[in-house]
């Protein structure tokens, strides 16, 4: 594969990442704000994702902002939040047409940077605070989002698993915030918090596309320079030994029960073993040919779905399965058995090669999309490491069966979470 050339400039209050590529027909500008996860601010940050899309100083409502994007040859804007390890990330994305494919002589990148500058530094305000009508309306939007999680039972079960598993760690915090915090948020204190975010958060700017010959660095300096205080550093992720496995059962009106398990891998993105962990997870539950899918779902017909994924910056592995409420013990035993078989090396070198190819192809597929590539590159910032995507692929290709056995030695079951039907008989005999 062709190596990704990323140029990094450390400027006044931000890091600028330039990725020149003729592969994509569009140019992507992404601004990421990073700070430690904190209960006191998490709901405000979630609300900002909505408020900032409702207007700027010049484009004073959502309709005018959409028109400005349309005038930029159909530019696409999105703002959202997420958590990676103990960090809370707010992401502002804009995808614009590459002017090389347009008949116009307009400097699209400069116009897009102007608009990004407005959205980030000059949102719609009144009397030195956010527009109170916008804030009131978007609080309702966010509240509906919070309530909708309960209706998506798979997301709800995953949220509850993390609640229980990481209850004394920042990672348990809900990235969409908390309903009880909404009442205390006002147009004034939200704006005050936003001003502190602009000073205190680490800001990384990515520009990806065919930008050859463009003076992006100079342009960014005029649009994104800021006075910045010292970055808050997230807590170091601590390894955690399991004294006792936690088992939690919730009851709701559900037809399909959710059995989710949380394991500690104590392996992070920056660790040398991370690449073997990716392959381990692929074989355990990451693909349709995995042990979980083939045994829990296909062979024993115990699950509507069964899969696993890793949290790269927290050292966790999650198992998700949707089962009949009466199959709790059978399904749990078979899931635990598959992990035990992984630890014992119940797989061949040929299977390891097959999974390695799948993991590599998955990475290449991610990199085919501009936003996917930017997210992959941002992992380096989150992990404070220098490893490039092409180096990652080479590391994955070098993984051997013995490496997976060493991974198995580190993985420990932490929490079993079961969401079942009210009155569901999960105590059926094995």
What can you see in these coordinates?
This protein is α+β, with helices and mostly antiparallel strands. The protein has two domains: 219 residues, Metalloenzyme, LuxS/M16 peptidase-like (Cytochrome Bc1 Complex, Chain A, domain 1, 2-Layer Sandwich), CATH 3.30.830.10; 176 residues, Cytochrome Bc1 Complex, Chain A, domain 1. Helices cover 44% and strands 22% of the residues. It has 15 helices and eleven strands. A six-stranded mixed β-sheet has the order 1-2-6-3-5-4, sandwiched between helices. It has a five-stranded mixed β-sheet with strand order 7-11-8-10-9, sandwiched between helices. Helix 3 packs parallel to helix 8, helix 9 packs across helix 12 and helix 12 packs antiparallel against helix 14. It is globular.
CATH class value of the largest domain:
Alpha Beta
CATH names the topology of the largest domain as: Cytochrome Bc1 Complex, Chain A, domain 1
H and E string: EEEHHEEHHHHHEHEEHHEEHHHHHE
**Structural class determined from secondary elements:** alpha+beta
Rg, Cα atoms, Å:
23 Å
Strand content: 15-25%
Supply the number of structural domains. 2
Supply the CATH architecture of the largest domain: 2-Layer Sandwich
Through-space gap between termini: 50 Å
| Low-pLDDT ranges | 426-430
Mean pLDDT: 93
Largest beta-sheet details: 6 strands, mixed
CATH homologous superfamily annotation of the largest domain: Metalloenzyme, LuxS/M16 peptidase-like
Query: What would the principal axes of the Cα set say about the shape?
Result: globular
Instruction: Kindly state the number of beta strands.
Output: 11
Helix content: 40-55%
DSSP helical segment count: 15
Strand order of the largest sheet: 1-2-6-3-5-4
